[in-house]
Amino acid sequence: MRKLILEDGTVMNGNGFGSERSVFGEIVFQTGMTGYQEVMSDPSYCGQIITFTYPLIGNYGINRDDFETIFPSLFGVVVKEHCEFPSNFRNEESMDEFLKARDIPGISGVDTRQLTKIIRENGTMKAMIVDESFSTEEAVKQMKETDLPHNQVETVSADKPYVIPNRGERITIVDYGMKNGLLRAFTERNCHVTVVPYDTSADEILRQKPDGVFLSNGPGNPADIPEATETVKQLIGRVPIFGVCMGHQIIARACGATTHKLHFGHRGVNQPVFDKKSKRTFMTSQNHGYSVDDNTIMSTELEVTQYSLNDQTVEGLKHSAYPVFSVQYHPESTPGPEDTGHLFEEFLALVRKEKGEKTNV
């Protein structure tokens, strides 16, 4: 037996699976009905304990093709029920076997509906997965005295640059914790991709002569990486830029806007976003705990292009003078709807336009 202890003293008992070690992190909830493998391997969950709201997780197992990173960085998993004997033609191991191999603890038998209601009401908070013998009072004391990590981007970003060669547009990706799906989106479009660490300087990026710069997703608070904001500030106006998730927030901060922590974040594959230009609603895949402050946009050169229909938070931005735009969600899906995959085409069209204008000068 194991137990989940929340910072507010709430205790939920359950059965352990995966690793047997105790873990401390920020507890969040994810609303997708499928895609648990992609979720667990998404670097944006670094430092977090994921509560899956769908009651049965693991029924189609784990396979080699659906990972979003080689080494998952989530801290723990909470489910109502995990499937011990998955059935699918691509299945290679169970969820329990996967978590054991990666030393990630899980707890099942938890009332995840009740847990989600607690998080929605009280907001994301610290939590621990521990053995049933662990003192609840001691756990709460430890959580109150211990800060959550602030170096998530540094933890999951690439250590050094690498190249995936091709003959198309030269795109430099700044890796704040990039998912494989984003990399696939560019390689499938024949782009020559150079991936650089999160703290690469603007001068070093421009030395690579990129046709465009892409700012990836990533975990944590954008305020924790001010060097990234400074780099993007120096890149704006010198090269086309497209940012998603963390990249979206970094663009906003580079232009003078601010960001804030959401009460419980957006994590799921069913988030409706309204596009102001087309007057269309898109279903999107999201995973973020911070948002751009809407009331700080007016004092910048940015304009809001999209907003969430759930809570009216900023979901899209565009620069009024330079070829720079961003979205808060994941247009590559993985997992989730593919409604917004066209944004990669729009970015590459912008890149080709800028290349043509420079060639004609």
UniProtKB/TrEMBL annotation:
<dbReference type="InterPro" id="IPR006274">
    <property type="entry name" value="CarbamoylP_synth_ssu"/>
</dbReference>
<feature type="binding site">
    <location>
        <position position="246"/>
    </location>
    <ligand>
        <name>L-glutamine</name>
    </ligand>
</feature>
<feature type="domain" description="Carbamoyl-phosphate synthase small subunit N-terminal">
    <location>
        <begin position="1"/>
        <end position="130"/>
    </location>
</feature>
<dbReference type="InterPro" id="IPR036480">
    <property type="entry name" value="CarbP_synth_ssu_N_sf"/>
</dbReference>
<feature type="binding site">
    <location>
        <position position="218"/>
    </location>
    <ligand>
        <name>L-glutamine</name>
    </ligand>
</feature>
<keyword id="KW-0315">Glutamine amidotransferase</keyword>
<comment type="function">
    <text>Small subunit of the glutamine-dependent carbamoyl phosphate synthetase (CPSase). CPSase catalyzes the formation of carbamoyl phosphate from the ammonia moiety of glutamine, carbonate, and phosphate donated by ATP, constituting the first step of 2 biosynthetic pathways, one leading to arginine and/or urea and the other to pyrimidine nucleotides. The small subunit (glutamine amidotransferase) binds and cleaves glutamine to supply the large subunit with the substrate ammonia.</text>
</comment>
<dbReference type="InterPro" id="IPR029062">
    <property type="entry name" value="Class_I_gatase-like"/>
</dbReference>
<feature type="binding site">
    <location>
        <position position="287"/>
    </location>
    <ligand>
        <name>L-glutamine</name>
    </ligand>
</feature>
<dbReference type="GO" id="GO:0044205">
    <property type="term" value="P:'de novo' UMP biosynthetic process"/>
</dbReference>
<dbReference type="GO" id="GO:0004088">
    <property type="term" value="F:carbamoyl-phosphate synthase (glutamine-hydrolyzing) activity"/>
</dbReference>
<feature type="binding site">
    <location>
        <position position="289"/>
    </location>
    <ligand>
        <name>L-glutamine</name>
    </ligand>
</feature>
<feature type="active site">
    <location>
        <position position="332"/>
    </location>
</feature>
<feature type="binding site">
    <location>
        <position position="44"/>
    </location>
    <ligand>
        <name>L-glutamine</name>
    </ligand>
</feature>
<feature type="binding site">
    <location>
        <position position="249"/>
    </location>
    <ligand>
        <name>L-glutamine</name>
    </ligand>
</feature>
<dbReference type="InterPro" id="IPR002474">
    <property type="entry name" value="CarbamoylP_synth_ssu_N"/>
</dbReference>
<dbReference type="InterPro" id="IPR035686">
    <property type="entry name" value="CPSase_GATase1"/>
</dbReference>
<comment type="pathway">
    <text>Pyrimidine metabolism; UMP biosynthesis via de novo pathway; (S)-dihydroorotate from bicarbonate: step 1/3.</text>
</comment>
<dbReference type="GO" id="GO:0006207">
    <property type="term" value="P:'de novo' pyrimidine nucleobase biosynthetic process"/>
</dbReference>
<dbReference type="InterPro" id="IPR017926">
    <property type="entry name" value="GATASE"/>
</dbReference>
<protein>
    <recommendedName>
        <fullName>Carbamoyl phosphate synthase small chain</fullName>
        <ecNumber>6.3.5.5</ecNumber>
    </recommendedName>
</protein>
<dbReference type="GO" id="GO:0005524">
    <property type="term" value="F:ATP binding"/>
</dbReference>
<feature type="active site">
    <location>
        <position position="330"/>
    </location>
</feature>
<comment type="subunit">
    <text>Composed of two chains; the small (or glutamine) chain promotes the hydrolysis of glutamine to ammonia, which is used by the large (or ammonia) chain to synthesize carbamoyl phosphate. Tetramer of heterodimers (alpha,beta)4.</text>
</comment>
<keyword id="KW-0028">Amino-acid biosynthesis</keyword>
<feature type="region of interest" description="CPSase">
    <location>
        <begin position="1"/>
        <end position="169"/>
    </location>
</feature>
<dbReference type="Pfam" id="PF00117">
    <property type="entry name" value="GATase"/>
</dbReference>
<keyword id="KW-0436">Ligase</keyword>
<dbReference type="InterPro" id="IPR050472">
    <property type="entry name" value="Anth_synth/Amidotransfase"/>
</dbReference>
<feature type="binding site">
    <location>
        <position position="220"/>
    </location>
    <ligand>
        <name>L-glutamine</name>
    </ligand>
</feature>
<keyword id="KW-0665">Pyrimidine biosynthesis</keyword>
<keyword id="KW-0547">Nucleotide-binding</keyword>
<feature type="active site" description="Nucleophile">
    <location>
        <position position="245"/>
    </location>
</feature>
<keyword id="KW-0067">ATP-binding</keyword>
<dbReference type="Pfam" id="PF00988">
    <property type="entry name" value="CPSase_sm_chain"/>
</dbReference>
<dbReference type="GO" id="GO:0004359">
    <property type="term" value="F:glutaminase activity"/>
</dbReference>
<dbReference type="GO" id="GO:0006541">
    <property type="term" value="P:glutamine metabolic process"/>
</dbReference>
<comment type="similarity">
    <text>Belongs to the CarA family.</text>
</comment>
<feature type="binding site">
    <location>
        <position position="290"/>
    </location>
    <ligand>
        <name>L-glutamine</name>
    </ligand>
</feature>
<dbReference type="GO" id="GO:0006526">
    <property type="term" value="P:L-arginine biosynthetic process"/>
</dbReference>
<keyword id="KW-0055">Arginine biosynthesis</keyword>
<comment type="pathway">
    <text>Amino-acid biosynthesis; L-arginine biosynthesis; carbamoyl phosphate from bicarbonate: step 1/1.</text>
</comment>
